[in-house]
Amino acid sequence: APAALYEAVGDSGQFSVEAWVTPANLTQNGPARILSLGKNTSEGNFVLGQGFFDGPGSLIEARHQRSGDWFLRTDPGSVSDRLTHVVVTRSVDGGMSVYLDGELSVRRTLDGSPAAWDTSFLLGIGAELDGSRAWLGTYHLVAIYDTALDAGQVVTNHLAGPNATSQPTPAPDSTPEPAPDGVPDPAPSPVPGPGPDAVPAAGSIFADVDLDEEHAPGINAVAAAGIATGYPDGSFRPVASVTRAQMATFLYRALNLAEGPDAGFADVPSDSVHVAGINAVAAAGITTGFVDGSFRPAASVTRAQMATFLYRAVLQDL
């Protein structure tokens, strides 16, 4: 049994499983075992699989132990037979998430705890230990971490590709970046704002921004300019991550961009509060989206992506 893995995950109470895979087909189910920590098909600590029992194979199923609420699935059709990046995370609070190609696909709280894993169960790749529930396809990378990767780290690993050899990127090495704005599109692990009775500090626009904070002048300035409006509860949430959709809105307002036509991103609904900003920055050539035709609005903006956005914005006559 993988004793070091059990010890590390048991101590931390959290974990992530990352895999770059190319499924051979979309008919295998069961689920077909991409990776498992278990004894057989009915006893296990964790399963990452394709498809579900007697159901479609075009989805990912993750299982955690087998009691109470113990599994979650992505939507049918969310998996194709091309190279796919899959990340499953479980945080200390029991929240379990599945990311596909850098995008949060499903998240909810499951029962059980890594501290209660049966440490006699073995690690299986491609099938259960008895050969059942075989998964057919190509492995490009498999990794298990004793921490729950956050959305930004998942995106960073996705952009790095399956040949990356470094550990997950840690939090930014400088002071916090600007925060979300307005009513955001769904984003992973939102940072709670202040309570309903919070009031701004004297001279501050937001209840959670003190005037003596390092970034207070910048925060209040962009708010006064209408670039950032904060959240409906009166907060700014200065340490929260910025989504790609929110950054598009920031650039749209800051550069006074003209509204553009529908950019055609399949994952940007027409009623999104950020659709005008996304279409505007796409029309201006600041963003091109991803090669699969998506924009991934709820994904966190990486520092590299932000540099590219600013590079394109500054060099163009807007």
Question: How would you characterize this protein structure?
Answer:
This protein starts with a helix and ends with a helix. 19% of the residues lie in helices and 20% in strands. It has 318 residues and is of the alpha+beta class. It has helices at residues 3-12, 151-160, 216-224, 244-254, 275-283, 303-315, and strands at 15-23, 32-38, 44-50, 60-64, 71-73, 84-90, 95-100, 103-109, 122-125, 137-145. The chain has a five-stranded antiparallel beta sheet with strand order 8-7-6-1-10. Strands 5-4-3-2-9 form a five-stranded antiparallel beta sheet, with no helix packed on it.
Overall strand count: 10
Structural classification? alpha+beta
Mean pLDDT: 82
State the separation between the terminal residues, measured CA to CA. Answer: 60 Å
Our Rg estimate from Cα atoms comes to 21 Å
| Shape descriptor | globular
Low-confidence stretches: 166-202
Beta-strand residue percentage: 15-25%
